[in-house]
Fold these 2 entries.
Entry 1:
Amino acid sequence: DIVLTQSPALAVSLGQRATISCRASQSVSLSRYNFMHWYQQKPGQQPKLLIYRASNLASGIPARFSGSGSGTEFTLTINPVQADDIATYYCQQNRESPWTFGGGTKLELK
Amino acid sequence: QVTLKESGPGILQPSQTLSLTCTFSGFSLSTYGMGVGWIRQPSGKGLEWLANIWWDDDKYYNPSLKNRLTISKDTSNNQAFLKITNVDTADTATYYCARIGANLYYFDYWGQGVMVTVSS
C-alpha cells in the first residue's frame, strides 16, 4: 500500500501563509498526471474536495488555496489563512489500489 | 445538484452484518466513468477508504478488510450499498459515501455521513 505521511498539526496566524505537506511512500505520478488530491474537513462535517490532481482547484474553492508537487512530495498552500480555514486537511492518492489517505493535518491558530 | 445521503442501523452487536445504503441524486451510476465509494472515519481519527463501485459494476475493495466487504448498486433507484460482515468494536465509525465523478477518480461530492456503533 502507498503510505501518505502528513504532520499532525500546524499552527498559523490569521493572514499568514500555511503550507501543509504530504509525502508518499512511492511515486503517485504517472506521465504528466499526479494522482494526489486534497480535502478539507471541519469538525462535525464531511470532507470537502479542495484540490484534485495535485494542483487543480475544485469548483467553488477560493483562490487562496493552491496545490503543488509531483512524485512523492506534495504541498497544499493557503495564503492568506482566514478563520474559516481552521480545519483538518487530508491528502489522498489513487495511483494504486487501495486508495489511501494521509493521517490529516490539523490547522490551528497561533 | 449532486447530493448523497447515507443510512444505516445506528447500533449493532459484534458478529452481526452491517448494511449501509447511500441514496443519491443529481447523477446516475449508469453514466460512463461514474463511481461511488465508501469511506469511514472512527471518532477523532483519520479517513479509511473501504470500497468503490463503478458504472459498469466493476468493484474494488480495501484488502485490509479482507473478505468482509460487499459493495453493490441499484442504478434504477439511485442507490449504492455496502455490507460488512462479522463486525466488531473496531468497525465503530462514521461511514461516508462519496461520488467519483465521471472519469475523475477522486471523491468530488460527499454525503453527510452516518454514525455506526458496534457494541454488545
Entry 2:
Amino acid sequence: DAGVTQSPTHLIKTRGQQVTLRCSPKSGHDTVSWYQQALGQGPQFIFQYYEEEERQRGNFPDRFSGHQFPNYSSELNVNALLLGDSALYLCASSFYSGGGETQYFGPGTRLLVL
Amino acid sequence: GENVEQHPSTLSVQEGDSAVIKCTYSDSASNYFPWYKQELGKRPQLIIDIRSNVGEKKDQRIAVTLNKTAKHFSLHITETQPEDSAVYFCAASKGTGGFKTIFGAGTRLFVKA
C-alpha cells in the first residue's frame, strides 16, 4: 500500500521563476491538501482539493495555484517566485467524509529560491 | 482570524518523566484536533487525534484532552523515552465538504537519558 509521495525532493529556483510540485495521495484517498512549512515553523495551510476543485484556501496570494487530476494526484504551482517562498512544501492526503478527516503527509519538496 | 497558539516552544524533561504540551484555538467552529510528531528532516506523523464530541482520548503513553468551552487542548506523554525527542505540532481543523487545518508553531521536546 503506497503512502503519499511527492516530487521532486529538492528544487532550486531563482526569483521570478515558476515552479510546479507534484503529489500522489495514499491509496484509497481522494483529497489532497498543500502546506508550506518554513524553517522552525508549523505547516501553513495553502489549499485543499477534492473532486478536482479547490474546496478551501488559506491566506496565500493568487501566485499559488493548484490542480487535481482524475486519479486524485495534485500539483501545486507557484508563479513569480520570491525569496520568501523558500520552504518545505508538504502535501497531505485524506479520504473525504465530510470534515475532520485524518491526513497523512508526504515527505515534502524542499524549495530554495535564490 | 483563525489561530492556534502552542506552549511551550521548547520542553526538556528527564527520561521517565511526563511531558505536557498545551494549545489554544480561536475558532469555536473547529471540530477536529490532531497532533503530529516531526523528527528532523522527516514528514509530520499523526500520533493521536480527538474530535469535538470527545473530552479525552488515550493511546498507550499518549493522551489528549479537549476543553471546548475554554478552547484548549493538551497532549500528555507519560514515561518519556529518548526516542520521543522531536517537534510536536497541535492543529485545529474545521469544515464540512472540505476542511482547513491550522497548525500551532510547534514544541521542541528534548528527553534526556
